[in-house]
Amino acid sequence: MKRVLILGTVLALTLAGCGKGNLNPLHWFKARKGAEMQAYTPPVDPRGLIDKVISLQIDPARTGVLVRATGLPPTQGFWDAALVALPADGSGHLVFEFRIFPPTVPSAAGTKPSREITAVASVSKFQLDGVTSIEVKGATNAMSAQP
């Protein structure tokens, strides 16, 4: 029992000597000064918009719909395509941006079918509530359809 008491005292004194550090038991339950709540800012997507959206298709799914868009970049080599939903504005329009990374090395233009890229996004029935149209934006055009 004496060993435990002596060891506990030595440990408490050692930790108390840590001053303003996190190991000091006197600081464990105090509120930290200067800690403020900051608003969440979503990360910025580094991908650019695809040059042109050439087709848009809305397919029914068990949980909602699948939005399928095909785009045409200016050259081959574009990668990591995605339909990125923009925040809802309450107007009944669901807007997606067709985002894609450019090639890492210069690429040939190639034929139109060899450059086509398709991206798909799932939209739940909950998200579709009150939506009258779905739009996919590219750099030079946009296409829309009813769900």
SSE arrangement:
Layout lengths: L1 H15 L31 E2 L2 E10 L2 E9 L6 E7 L7 E9 L10 H4 L1 E8 H4 L4 E5 L4 E4 L2
Parallel strand pairs: 5-7
Antiparallel strand pairs: 1-5, 2-3, 3-6, 4-5, 7-8
Q: How would you summarize what this structure contains?
A:
The chain has about 150 residues and is α+β, with helices and mostly antiparallel strands. The protein has 3 helices and 8 strands.
Sheet-strand content, in percent, reads: 35-45%
What is the average of the pLDDT values? 86
Q: Tell me the number of helical segments per DSSP (H or I, 4 or more residues long).
A: 3
Provide the gyration radius in Å: 27 Å
In terms of quaternary structure, what is this? single chain
Domain module count:
2
Describe the structure.
Strands 1, 4, 5, 7 and 8 form a 5-stranded mixed sheet that branches. A 3-stranded antiparallel sheet has the order 2-3-6. It is an alpha+beta fold. A hairpin with a 4-residue loop joins β7 (133-137) and β8. The chain has 3 helices and 8 strands; from the N terminus they run αβββββαβαββ. The mean pLDDT is 86. It has helices at 2-16, 112-115, 125-128, and strands at 48-49, 52-61, 64-72, 79-85, 93-101, 117-124, 133-137, 142-145. It folds into 2 domains: 1-38, no CATH class; 48-145. The N and C termini lie far apart (74 Å).
Keywords:
147 residues, 16% helix, five-stranded mixed β-sheet, alpha+beta
